[in-house]
Amino acid sequence: MGIAISAALAAATRQLRAAGLAEPRREAELLLAARLGRNLAYLYAYREEILSAEAAAGYRDWVSRRCHGEPYAYLCGEREFMGLPFSVTPACLIPRPETELLVEAVVAELAAVSAPEILEVGTGSGAVAVALAVLVPDARVTATDISAPALSVAAGNAARHGVRERITFLSGDLYAPLAARNSSFTVLVSNPPYIPSGELAKLSRDISGYEPLAALDGGADGLHYYRRLTGELPALSCKPAFLALEVGKGQAGAVSTLCRGAGYEDVRLLRDLAGIERVVLARA
Length: 284
What we know:
The model has no long low-confidence stretch (mean pLDDT 96). This protein has helices at 5-18, 24-36, 40-45, 53-67, 72-76, 99-109, 127-135, 148-160, 205-208, 224-231, 252-261; strands at residues 3-4, 50-51, 78-81, 84-87, 117-121, 140-145, 167-171, 187-190, 242-246, 266-271, 277-283. The chain folds into two domains: 3-68, Helicase, Ruva Protein, domain 3 (Orthogonal Bundle); 90-283, 3-Layer(aba) Sandwich (Rossmann fold). The radius of gyration is 21 Å and the shape is elongated. It has eleven helices and eleven strands. 38% of the residues lie in helices and 18% in strands.
């Protein structure tokens, strides 16, 4: 015997609540809508529609996996960022809302620049690189990452949003893929790993158990990659005009000092909606 949408949602809500999820009803609805390829309005309008056996089984599987901590974005394979849908897989971090501040800051800085050249180090899903290419139509973007699977996801997202021809994806560690290239960049953008190694175990299970730890681990004090990003700039043929770096809570001061040490004296800090200094902008 089949099960109606209303009954499936009720059962899933109970299961998710028992697992300790903060918004079990909302999660149940979002999971079913994604599983059916429908919007929430459809669920409300057709509450008594009977699910197919396949749909019901698939939904139960997703609910069970969510109860064990698997992120919603990995289950449905998608996350919205800057108003755009992005494919995500466990090969890359799930884009966060606070990173939108980084993109907005760079777009504002480039408003008066013609045909800017953007370098993003550590592109992951490509959300930042693709969003910048979409929002700055005359820009060209170079995006690097050490993870080949992540670069594959990023390239797919670039094609999805029609900017693949304006983004060059390169595989390698930080600036290494650019060593043999005579490139000049307007801006270096990066949201590197910045969680101190000792704090990784304290992360929620949906992060520590599923997202790639290499994309989170910022070394003993969380600043390892900021030291490298600023200290290894001579590896580029020409120093970028400015840096735009996302940072963790309490790291803005130390990262600002690193930027100044690399010759970027004009430093500004931008706060996110929680009041945390989240983005460091530094001009040479």
